[in-house]
């Protein structure tokens, strides 16, 4: 009996000891112990802080997981409790244990063999309403640039490792909490709600997505709740001012008139359009109605706009239920002046109110079962002018200052405004201010993504076996109401000077009198998506060295347009049909003791975009990795090289979004007003139906073969270096056939085929340096560099061309096809002694002269025509993009800079001809300052001779107008101060630009620069955390 009591006592003691077991350890980094690190046991409410010497003591047991938060950097690591005495937990060293989000799952960083870049959410936080505006230069492998600064339309274009297709969709797949979303949905995400952001670049990382993964994948996961003793509340307020980075300078009224006279003389002799009296009257401002001199830009645009952003989020929960809830309000305004209130009861400046809500709830039904509900809601209410802001900007710049006043004085006989205008065969089309105030457009859009996810562990059956099921419904809808009033315009018909020095004048109504009433139109649009996914996963280690991660995946997707608007019955039919995809995929990931890594993926996907028999495709990939730093022989180098991994991957990926339309394999027959052409010379027409497009059941998706070789390293516990070289050959690229002979009856009929091929290759590198010099001083440095170039390998064009310079094979995508300029003609002798230029019209001294390109036999034909064009310059999409910058923390202060630049990109200046096609456009100041003229016969001038109308010889694409689009920007600067649980900061975006191109912001690309300019931003912010 006493023996039983003794045994019972021992067992009870052991049980109590097990229940009250405590985990001990010391939190350190490269400087030694860390005081104030937060240590918590995952899925419990247990939490402690480390002592001054870094030590801690917390209730727990072997098999638990500890989360350790660095109080300085707020970085987190998770470690397994293998024994109660953990010893030293090095936050830096254990970063390799961080989980990286991959396709359909997560992996520890050290076991990842694909090319994946993870971005810290705080690095995505810039004073902008669009998340994509933070990508440029910060993420290796991502090409991003911003073409416009117009609120609501100022998001960046972005690509992963460049562009590999001619006609297909080139943008990456974007996955938000497991479901595909648009780039617009991505831009609406607040960085404060992001838990992780990963960019998947090679075939191993993207093959599981099959026909959706050819262009890379971005995966965003929003924050979840946490088992906390009390909720954690964050509040952020930002207020920022935007000013244009650059506004084109125009000439004054008098200078415009003199230049117009010069242009008139260049075309023909005769009386100039403007007399000296008119020029003097304008210059001396004798009368604003007879001698107007209007600065249209200042009439329409302000110098700045003011925006605000507020975010509130709360995170908390208990053992059974946890939650994360966030609300963001973003208010954007434009630079337009509220002039409509001078004439009407509405203000039509750009005014956007955007509300974003994220609600995530996890219910832990047991230790093995969890249900999650995620709800993302975006509500946007916006007002804009009825005329687009880009058009208004162009009207304000193009309208010359002297043709008419803004408006004439009020007339008691009419109740409307008498707007100024100009009449004649060459009519300046718009009064810019009248266009601005004539109406407005109101729109309201809503987007809801609801995701229900179920996770079930089957450890009680098979250790490591689990199942995940996900169902998502996404709905977007938009309603737009347009209200526009016509307006009446008048012109000056005659005037006379009065004895008192004033003027008497008469006006004439242009056209017929309009009733000034707001006319209303409206429209709706929208779409919805239903996505379902199931994953069976097996993750287990054997003998602590054989680590397996096996997954079997099923997914299906259905996308519907709510609006069926189309110009043809065929379009209505196509829009009414759902877009469906289906696929299965599998992954086997194995590593031996985290040293030798292998991953095999395969996706089998179907798309209804193609004919039966061509709808399914198989997309495999394989990757190998070797963690050299895990080898025993590396132990002696651990003080220098903490991590060193090499990896390589190969795989196939697909793209079914080709040609910009659906079911392009089907024939399209036109029954109306068409017929067949026939005959040897195709000169006989037969009435009747005709084929607009021939059927081709062999059409299929593009297939990209990707190869990647990478190296990842961490040195001196402070320096991380990553490097990748990559290549993709995109085959089966969809294009219109160009080599089918006309005598087969296809001259006016479209024939499509998968005939083109493009090679895309390059390299990327990133560097991250983090050094704690002492507890008061920390320095971080980040840098990235990406180089991507492409080449057309195959193109459906004649194999023999008399002018090889016109061949597509061998050139890069998005290069410029134009003439090779050789300066300006100096005199008539030079004009008469060179090849005859047949582009358009007669040439004269001061016009651009072009090179006569020889044919395949080396013979120049003595004339300049379309055969003399060549592909020139770099692509419009930059081949090089880079970024770098430091961040310094000293005690409670922090300071950061980030520079971003691009190179190997060209932009073509065009559509900037003085006076324009209507002979009334204003003149840019740089043209007035440097152009060829009889009194300035400079053959290197920035602009050829002036002409009253466009002279095609001088406006066609040529090397004369090609410019270097490279630039370096101080993209972001920020300084902050932290006091207890509050941080105050000021920041700026696009603060400085260094570029040889000075006409406008080179990031906006080519053209004439007459677009709503990109913005320079000055921001003040405040953040408070309550815990």
Automatic annotation (TrEMBL):
Record organism: Candidatus Ornithobacterium hominis
Similarity comment: Belongs to the TonB-dependent receptor family.
Residues in TonB-dependent receptor plug domain copies: 109-217
Keyword Phosphoprotein applies: no
Subcellular location: Cell outer membrane
Pfam families: Plug (PF07715)
Keyword vocabulary terms for this entry: Cell outer membrane, Membrane, Signal, Transmembrane, Transmembrane beta strand, Transport
NCBIfam families named among the record's database cross-references: OMP_RagA_SusC (TIGR04056), SusC_RagA_signa (TIGR04057)
Lineage: Bacteria, Pseudomonadati, Bacteroidota, Flavobacteriia, Flavobacteriales
InterPro entries tied to this protein: CarboxyPept-like_regulatory, Plug_dom, Plug_dom_sf, TonB-dep_OMP_SusC/RagA, TonB-dep_OMP_SusC/RagA_CS, TonB-dep_rcpt-like
Protein name: TonB-linked outer membrane protein, SusC/RagA family
Bilayer topology: Multi-pass membrane protein
GO cellular component, one term: cell outer membrane
Signal peptide from the UniProt entry: 1-20
